[in-house]
């Protein structure tokens, strides 16, 4: 058997900063660790320190290098500058063969800039998501466009994301449709939990996006309260984001209602089980929009625009924004029209098949000149 010496291995650095990045990067880190050619280092920026560690821990993974950039009430530019200087120093010291970063956080934007300056190749996981406005969602739309500009490899989750990149003139030879790694993560984590056969009466609600802070969030909470009164068999689960702008509104509007459970954010395993056991889901989370369809859960999206229209096109998701009348009408219809519910719970999974990490690792190997077979794109 051919053994590869440690000093002959390629050094791949995976960067994570927030909970969703940790969840979506975990399958890639785990897959790269299995590849004999690869030495993986996980660098954490600590943008959402506790939730990031908790999410990696759910997969038996941890951070090797902690840049520890977060200070209380930090402005986005200050956070960016701390990541820039911390990660640049790391790149200077290590000069890795490849850096992988995921999604659209301030972490990914700053890491992309560092890679560009240091001429270190970047692979962007979940590339090509776009809305029509540079500041919506803020600051993520800007962040993902910067990541695309710097990336040598674009791992697009869907065919639509690939088309968006090609329309911006990125080289087709650098764009690969892999599926979203969140589906790999979800299927992996759910294996740890036996399925329950109980009939579900749970409505899962999550909200945290900046554009919903204030009045929009108040309107959604008022709708939840009315639905709670209208449907006495329903129970509502709301894991509440720790941001005070979210917590204060949700608690003021919904605390104390009999069948509404407000809690701290759930571990990824717990959240995955609540999703699997739910009847339907209302959310403004990007990740949950991607996860719900494969679990056969109708998902109502509490945003005015989504960069993930694939679920809408497949008829398994619906954009309801934060308009009370629309939210309540959709929930009413799902609860009273069986055929409509069944059409939204069809199980179509436009976001992936659970093999995204394998495709990404194959493409990294090919890019680094290691040859090997590459799994065909996700279709
Ligand atoms: C603008 C935008 O759409 N950006 C997205 C984004 O974030 P998001 O909106 O998906 O973020 P969240 O909702 O915080 O996380 C979601 C994950 O967390 C799990 N979860 C949730 C509640 C809980 O109590 N416990 C949990 O475990 C849940 O199942 C899911 O997997 O950032 C990513 C990184 O770059 C991007 O990929 C992505 O575009």
From TrEMBL:
What is the annotated signal peptide range for this record?
Answer: none
**One Gene Ontology molecular-function label:** UDP-N-acetylglucosamine 2-epimerase activity
Similarity-based family: Belongs to the UDP-N-acetylglucosamine 2-epimerase family.
Task: List the lineage, top down.
Answer: Bacteria, Pseudomonadati, Pseudomonadota, Alphaproteobacteria, Hyphomicrobiales
> E.C. number, please?
5.1.3.14
| UniProt entry tagged with the keyword Cytoplasm | no
What's the protein here called?
Answer: UDP-N-acetylglucosamine 2-epimerase (non-hydrolyzing)
Q: Which organism is it from?
A: Enterovirga rhinocerotis
Q: Which UniProt keywords apply?
A: Isomerase
Any single Pfam family the record assigns to this protein: Epimerase_2
InterPro entries recorded for this chain? UDP_GlcNAc_Epimerase_2_dom, WecB-like
What CDD domains is this protein classified in?
A: GTB_UDP-GlcNAc_2-Epimerase
The UniProt record lists the UDP-N-acetylglucosamine 2-epimerase domain at: 31-362
Q: State if Isomerase is listed as a keyword.
A: yes
The reaction(s) annotated as catalysed by this protein in its Swiss-Prot or TrEMBL entry are: UDP-N-acetyl-alpha-D-glucosamine = UDP-N-acetyl-alpha-D-mannosamine
**Enzymatic class:** isomerase
